Predict the 3D structure of the following.
Amino acid sequence: MEQQMTFDKAFAELQKLVRQIETEDIQVDTLAAKVHDANELVKYCETRLRVIEEDVVKERE
Amino acid sequence: MPETQKLSEIVNEIEGTIRNRFAGRTFWIKAEIADVKKYTDKRWCFLKFIEKMGNQVSAEIKGVFWSNSYRQIELFEGATQQAFTSGLEITCNVAVKFHKRYGLTLEVVEIDFAYAVGKLELERKLIIDRLLQEQVMVQDGTSGLYYSRNNRIGLPLVIQRIALITGPDSDGQRDFKKVIGNNKYGYAFRITEFLTRIQGDEASGLVAEKLRLIEAEQNKYDVVVIVRGGGSDTDFKSFNNYELARQVALFPVPVLTGIGHDRNTSITDLVARQNRTPTETATFIIDYNMDVDNELESLKERFFSAVDNRLLRTSNDLENYRQRIRNLSPETILKKGFALIMMDNKIVCDPAHIPENAYTQTLLKNEIIHSKVIEKTSNGTANDI
């Protein structure tokens, strides 16, 4: 995951992934990678709700 | 040696004169009040009425509320959302009394709230008009709601880093922090406190000063929270202050207020995001994060159900293909009673390739029939099936 990830970014990416998989014909080959990404994003967001990270500050500057 | 009188004689005469002149009469006066001292247990209040010419006091007299009129003070505070305190101008009905020991006093019978409320309303309206004129805030034509730059800044998806402006050791501070600290969902918050007096006339200036400190490091905060609670119902003035309202309206970080007024909305509330109390403000923040948490959960479910669907569709597709391939295999065709004709170990697709007298093999389900072609004739239809 990229270093300057923020909750807002991760959330937006997750929304995009969901839209993609719901509407586009994703190839089964790439499905595994998408599932991995989605899992990472969800985990990141869930953690960020419960932990404060300082690098969020830098990102906003 | 001049002839003297007893003090009591002259005091009695003064008393009599005043009684004759003023007994049974009351007067409506408009004056500023000063040196207000309330004795809540006895329900007395001592004060001074003054009138000024510029900065000079041009008239001054003692005033008092006895317990039979003390209720007027409470009604005044309720109606105006303002503490009955020195510096106010009030309109009241008074009786002139002289006491042999305590001298001349105006006893207050009644306060004219309408005057006080009207005056405050007018002040408030002037400030709102000015802010509208300066385009620091705008009023929505249909909803009547006020919008400022501040209350239109979008909140981040998660609120975590809170700059808290509140009174030290105040109920507001305790209530807010308690609710935030006890959130059962385990959301993380970091509260940076900016403690200051948040009651009284100086409060607007003190809050403004804290806002400037926060603005200097605005990237460190998701929101600014201004809260106070517990018996502050009577002190509304500081949040109707023009400078403070303007500063909040233009403030770059979203401001959430919970300044403890049930009935009224201060101008500062109008230009910020208002909650009624410190507890409600804290609850708002937790609910806000919970909403995004729920949305996250539903995104997760949607994603994985879409993945399942996708996989199911693929496996159905595969099954379809398998079925079609099975249907088309020579074995299936032979089982159905069709035959294959072979010549020189090759399947013959085009009968034109079979000359007369050729040796052919006809493949059936269980047997092969070896034949010699005696004659070829057209069957009257197209050959291709």
User: Anything to note?
Assistant: The interface with chain B takes residues 7-8, 11, 14-15, 17-18, 21-22, 26, 28, 31, 34-35, 38, 42, 45-46, 48-52, 57, 60-61 of chain A (CB under 8 Å).
